[in-house]
Amino acid sequence: MSPTMGSAAVGPGSAAELLLQRLELVGAQGEAGLCSLEAAEALGLEHQVLVGAVKSLQSLGEVIEAEQRTSKKWELTPEGKEIVQEGSHEVRVFHSIPSEGLVQSELMKLPSGKVGFSKAMSNKWIWLDKTSEGGPRIFRAVETVQDSVRDKLLQVEQGEGEKLEEKDKNELKKRKLLAEVTIKTYWISKGNAFSTTITKQETDLTPEVIASGSWRDLKFKAYNFEALGIMPESGHLHPLLKVRSQFRQIFLEMGFTEMPTNNFIESSFWNFDALFQPQQHPARDQHDTFFLKDPAEAIDFPMDYLKRVKKVHSQGGYGSQGYRYDWKLEEARKNLLRTHTTAVSARMLYQLAQQKFTPAKYFSIDRVFRNETLDATHLAEFHQIEGVVADYGLTLGDLMGVLKAFFTKLGITQLRFKPAYNPYTEPSMEVFSYHQGLKKWVEVGNSGLFRPEMLLPMGLPDGVSVIAWGLSLERPTMIKYGINNIRELVGHKVNLQMVYDSPLCRLDA
After folding, report:
1. 327-357 residue pLDDT tens
2. Which of 22, 91, 336, 436 is within CB 3.0–4.6 Å of 147 for a Cys-Cys bond?
3. What is the full DSSP assignment across 269-310?
4. Using an 8 Å Cβ cutoff, are 101 and 128 in contact?
5. Number of H helices, E strands in the chain
6. Strand, helix or coil at 7?
7. 183: helix, strand or coil
């Protein structure tokens, strides 16, 4: 084979020219066309190189015609090729047995021992004396043998495999000595625009070509109106929506029921008073909360419950001395954009108290609003994730256990708990996780047991405890751990540092 005709040295263009010259030659000899496999062999090319040349010529128009054909042939497996060289396993076993016989354990150590012993016994070429001294011994049962397996494989190797009987092919295939392979070839013939030389077709009609008039002498490639264009980039779900779906699935797997959070507007009563948060608390200031002008006040309250809330605030009760201030209904009636979804939890717990108590687990994921000054680390709204469990005798240990199970499902296993203060939980804990990327402990949530001053006015039985926790969907650790690989979920490249530095994710937010 000459250097210019090796598969590695022949490019698609020169291979195409060689194919056209071969097609011209067989046409002069009266042949209607040629097979790509035979052409590759005649030209000294690999078949795949020739197939590439065929496809290249097809793109030029009607230079050639190519019809794809499929055929099947039998080929030897590597083990089959070994048998052609060295003989079948059973023949090798037969020849390894001397006239005085061979101990079976020694025979089994031979490379062809196990397979050859079985086949030779089946052919009745050997026999086994189990009573022989020193263990079972194998002797020849015949003087000579014919290696029919090797003969059949040799016949296939010489291209005469089709002469074998079907049962012989199936037997050799079962022994994994023979394999049926599918060969895809092309029947190549001359096209209407056949030529032995290749003229490059133009693909671009440029302003310069039009202005000079040279387009009249150029041959342009035909447009393929059936060709698929480049798929436009489709939209992707926002990363936070995907994180939200993951959180929701975790809550559902843990047996929680989703709370209705479709009301963004709450009264101050449900947002603050029902949670045993005093009316002079700084969170009620207009600098922290969005109050509504229209409608400015709520008018519908469960009055018996409202009176109990008023009493525990102003006079105390249920073992508490309260806040000792003049509780005002007009403050409780003020409408606002909810500052947390705990207002929804309060409504759900109140409804739970109005019926025969049964343990319950609730969760919510939705928007809340804070009257923040917008800057690089603060937004006026974010998404709060909240979980609530109500049952008899729940303790701080139960809370820590539920939190560990919850965060483990997110892939967060390194947790720390720090005592904290909340108006409506006692004891209260902040939850921290070690951030592998930032190499530091970061806060991921807040938690605690709801105070009796909040629960007992609702009408919940003595002995019922409620554990709860909340976190923000936008916290950087939730982004890091909650979606595992933000690039994969977004669907395209993302600058992770840009994500971490965004207002939604800043650690000091």
Report:
1. 999 999 999 999 999 999 999 999 999 999 9
2. 91
3. HHHTGGGT--TT-GGGSTTTS-B-STT-B-----HHHHHHHH
4. no
5. 20, 15
6. coil
7. strand
